[in-house]
Amino acid sequence: MERDTNFVLGIYEDEDVLKDAVTKVRDSGVKIHEVFTPYPIHGLEDVLGYKRSRLPIAAFIFGVCGTGLALTMQLLMMAVDWPMIIGGKDHAAIPDFIPVTFELTVLLASFGMVGVFMVSSNLKPWGQPRIFDTRSTDDKHVMAIDLAVNAGLGEDKIKEVLQASGASEVNNKSFE
Fold it and tell me: What is the pTM of this model?
């Protein structure tokens, strides 16, 4: 269960103004909770200071598990449980196992990445998403500042910083 939180939202009209505003807001000591945009903005994650995702590491681990599972399954089926000679080949004809191994590797890597992404992003099926401003899906850019994290600065100071950085609107938003 998530705690009750209060946010100050800065609404921006232009992506270039938003990128400059992120730099100004971070330089003033305000910690940004998140920035919502209607489309991807190149370089925004760098300006926000995001680290590189570790999702490829999870994909590799799930892919290795898929490869191991596929090879083990086929070897046990074809060489131990029900050994048959098909076309004069060995019971454990590894080259013949490559298509199934590839498919299971891709399947487990993709399902594993989706699962890890859902868990790390807190996107549970029974959860209720927080919608800060519905215009962020249409034509506005929204910067959300968590008041609990920035308690030492004060709400008025945060609003001044957002307005000085070029926000066309500054609003409050509460979630219960």
Answer: 0.73
